[in-house]
Amino acid sequence: MAAAALTAHELIAEHRPTLDQALEAMRTRAYWSPHPEHPKAYGENGSLGMAEGKAAFDALLGGRLDLDQPGTDGWVGGEVSPYGIELGVTYPHADIDTLLPAMRAGQRAWRDAGAETRAVVCLEILKRISDRTHEFALAVMHTSGQAFMMAFQAGGPHAQDRGMEAVAYAYVEQVRTPDTAEWTKPQGKRDPLALTKQFTPVPRGIALLIGCNTFPTWNGYPGLFASLATGNAVLVKPHPRAVLPLALTVEVARKVLAEAGFDPNLVALAAERPGEGIAKTLATRPEIRIIDYTGSTAFGDWLEANARQAQVYTEKAGVNTVIVESTDDYKGMLSNLAFSVSLYSGQMCTTPQNFLVPRAGIPTEEGPKSYDEVVADLARAVDGLLGDDVRANALLGAIVNPDVKARVEAAAGLGEVALASREITNPDFPDAVVRTPVIVKLDGGKPDDQAVYMSECFGPVSFAVAVDSAAEAVELLRRTVREKGAMTVGAYTTSEEVEEAVREACLDEAAQLSLNLTGGVYVNQTAAFSDFHGSGGNPAANAALCDGAFVANRFRVVEIRSEVRAEA
Amino acid sequence: MAAAALTAHELIAEHRPTLDQALEAMRTRAYWSPHPEHPKAYGENGSLGMAEGKAAFDALLGGRLDLDQPGTDGWVGGEVSPYGIELGVTYPHADIDTLLPAMRAGQRAWRDAGAETRAVVCLEILKRISDRTHEFALAVMHTSGQAFMMAFQAGGPHAQDRGMEAVAYAYVEQVRTPDTAEWTKPQGKRDPLALTKQFTPVPRGIALLIGCNTFPTWNGYPGLFASLATGNAVLVKPHPRAVLPLALTVEVARKVLAEAGFDPNLVALAAERPGEGIAKTLATRPEIRIIDYTGSTAFGDWLEANARQAQVYTEKAGVNTVIVESTDDYKGMLSNLAFSVSLYSGQMCTTPQNFLVPRAGIPTEEGPKSYDEVVADLARAVDGLLGDDVRANALLGAIVNPDVKARVEAAAGLGEVALASREITNPDFPDAVVRTPVIVKLDGGKPDDQAVYMSECFGPVSFAVAVDSAAEAVELLRRTVREKGAMTVGAYTTSEEVEEAVREACLDEAAQLSLNLTGGVYVNQTAAFSDFHGSGGNPAANAALCDGAFVANRFRVVEIRSEVRAEA
């Protein structure tokens, strides 16, 4: 092996303090992030500024991203930005029978490097990605359809935070058992029994990351870095419409691994031809021992049932509920909820879908509001928030794909429309499909309506569901989470009794609850090192980002013990 | 709820120091156990001595163990000791549709008690069991067929150690996240965003423990206590031939729970009628969210494939290999191996089955030994160890069931017999079936022989497999672990190169390795707080006892967050 340009010693010196801060943040769950959220924070100390990031992104367009991977048997690509640009980037297509064995070749050295070195190599990868945040932001924007600022923050620092969190959890899990131990058991008057024991975290094999279209980096980094930090090689299979952000990630990872003296093939890309559908083939290969997946319930369930040789971590669909029972900050509630349903046109797994409102209305500090008033006021709040096209475009981004567009258009037929979806023009990107949210009134007790609101309607579609009482709302919440899953639950209430009932429902059904949010924090947002994303305990996801369970089964500990021999 | 006889405060005062010692032992992996191994250590400070334990056991025989469980619809039982005694104990048979809802009733209070209180209640249960170790020893002896001393140690202190280890892992996993956190995110010149967050470990639901015949307590306690300590109710479904030890465990647990002010129905027994086969029914009930199972590969695989609503932890069959390549302590090696194959008539999931010996022989400090000599000397060592009937009975115990007896008898037909199995009479229990181990010579390269040694032959049957070289032995070891799984691997070698190759094989295939054991530690034994039992990374088991992964997914953390409101 050639002398490494980056030594473990240097990397530890540079990144160990950050790792320790991450571990401390996870312990206290106080606010912490090493990755700046403001675009202007970049451009110095080796990081790309806005213009440089734009230039770097533009230079990628129409070109070939050659990752120098073994078994490359062609070039594929065909991403079209939801903003209308053809990216024109092509990526290596892999002969899997060549690539997978090549990925295994470097695993022994990666395993023997130990948990700390793996952690700091991962942090160096994240550092290089962070330096290119402006470039990544444009890659995320033009594959997911997120507006620039969201693509920048969620696709950049927040995704990097989630990756680092996974590295920190993986590190601390591996060092819970010492490398070696001396075990001496007294035997009364006889000599004690004495053993020397060595404990080595070993990887499961090759991990497969199946990326998603809407949050390629944010949803992809936890699994990628958790697997890599625990010694596994990682094969990245991006969504065909969102290849670029993960391909760039693979490029950075391969470069850093090589510079640190490891085999770059520990991380590789599996891009596919249109309609090739390689995920099923890859997921059931015997070499693949870990799978991380974000996407549809149907395919997530298929993976759990069929990829039996692997540990499978899935984030699937859910139906998110907000109970609106009472409030002492009616305007704050409305503007908070209006933002929640508008952000990225509701194309988040955490966006609220069903607003459960008592049909008798709700008490507020402005006096009682009828069900109709609440719904009309929410509609007005959304309208107000999105009344200015510049702000609307900055919040909504673009509709990610034709399926979402079709759902928005069909929503008006599902019930009485309280707020119609509007088309908005994006002057910078005239081909972008931009739509404001639609709000439809439904009756909680009607079977036909129930069939509508008990299914996930991914995109900017919300249902204002009239219910008989707070108790019915809580019961419906319970049933929704149990049967359909939920990534988030929200509730507005000034009643201790109702609050307690909602809390109990969420504790019983393992749903993450945001109570009475009226300010600048939204139910759809979670912060790494503090908030859990999903619970792993309801049908929406079988894992939470990030906790011990997310990392502990990605490696196993092998013990080698031998007798301590008496010295001659 | 009635005033509790045991307060959490008292239990914490009593057991917290032990919990802390357990946590420290798990961190250092040095020797530690709070449970004395010597039968004479009992009889004071409230624990039963030998005669009292015998009297307590005798008082159980022919009686009804009434656990006062809801939904009891009859009485079942029919255990016959492998030593020939009919136990005549009857147990409640449960109407599951009544019992399961009753088990859920107490879960909220158990959840709200928090991780520390749950841990110390579990430790109190273990303390009460420890006090009755002599009684439990006889219950284990007369269900598993283990000899008294082994039933005492493995069924008593070692099982209690494994239970406590699971409690300690469960505790520390739950307190990695604080109960509450204040999260304050700076917003430049604007007011910071501030949230109060509560984090609550919540149970998955009801856990099912499916017990085994040979080690009802040792293999049962880790899952039982890991699930209970993480807030789940636990339904114990014992093996029909080994009900008593787990029924007594359930009795103790129910009593302690009630005394501590919790619902005793958090732990319940599901005994079954002969041939009822309720495990499949229970395992697929929606209320059952966790399953711990020790037993056949066929049923373990069935559980993994069909109990999809549950987290399934299985210990199944494996084929354990010992490579005998060279040694500098030939006699020590032979006597160590002779003990390993004799202990409990080889009826351990950790007993070595295949001895791989180069056909050209092995170097030793006594000079070279041919393959035939090694096998003959091993046979002689076993004969010597078991030459005295009293000692033989004390080591072998009794054959647990007719299947094992049939396998021993059939073994002579599998190849050239190097050591024939002998019948031994147990003067105290004339009906006990006692057999010494059989050793059969096989050829590693012959397909017919391969079919024999590549299958688990549970019981006192070992194969001395002639191989062409050390390299072939290592390759065969790899293949055996990969295809059949292994709970243990042993190796004897003085060659650094061979040792390295064996180490690499075990690291690659996730197998636990004991090297050159020649003294009083045996490949089939592991010590809680220090050794891992299984790796969870090969087909023999999907979990290791005990590690973070064994506990981390038995609960989920629910976060409830709300805004910090400015003070009025």
TrEMBL record, chains A, B:
Listed GO MF terms: L-glutamate gamma-semialdehyde dehydrogenase activity
Origin: domain of life: Bacteria
GO cellular component assignments: cytoplasmic side of plasma membrane
Pfam family, one: Aldedh
Protein keywords: NAD, Oxidoreductase
InterPro entries in the cross-refs: Ald_DH/histidinol_DH, Ald_DH_C, Ald_DH_N, Aldehyde_DH_dom, PaaN_2, Proline_metab_enzyme
Domain spans labelled Aldehyde dehydrogenase: 93-520
Alphabetical GO biological process terms: L-proline catabolic process to L-glutamate
Name of the protein: Phenylacetic acid degradation protein PaaN
Organism from which the protein derives: Streptomyces dioscori
Underlying gene: paaN
